[in-house]
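Quick start: load a record and inspect it. Here is Transcriptional regulatory protein liaR:
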Amino acid sequence: MSIRVVVADDQDLVRAGLVLILGAYPDIEVVGEAADGIAALDLATRLLPDVLLADIRMPGLDGVEVTRRVAGPDVANPIAVVVITTFDLDEYVLGALRAGARGFLLKDAGPELLVQAIRAAATGDALIAPNVTRRLLQAFADRSPQAPTQPVEPLTDREEDVLALVARGRTNAEIAAELFIGLSTVKSHIASLMAKLGVRNRVEIAMWAHHTKRV
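Running the structure step on this input writes:
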């Protein structure tokens, strides 16, 4: 089955480019386009796509608020959201990740990484642009005035390994290959990490890792 995607960006040329790129892949179907946040929210609510690809800065509602409304902790059936931005140190990015986005990319990331992010989000995984993961998350961790929450239970050695790879932007499949373990085992470790760290998703796991200087 195709991955159903809604593309939201207020720049017509950028939006058309994203649609053109995604349309070249047989496993991806663009089912809607939005030029502002209100339209993006409406389409996501009505069409229930597998993935919403949303610009971080849009009129009406920005990408952070759209993400919160379709993927936030209070949403019963959250939609996978991948946010895109022009600036790798955009302050809105942290808000989007906390609002429930499964990943983010720079607009110049290229077709291959864009498609990887869409596929990862559709399967419950997350992808953060590798070239900005460390610098971006570290920058936000340094600015945060709050001390990170300590694990409710100590992390195992294997969980520490998985934690480090998640923080570097690896997908579940890449973690499995690098650690020579099964995909289901990776998912179990990530679920355990979320429970121990009190976070909602793998992006917050990465943020915690950078905040505590684990990587």
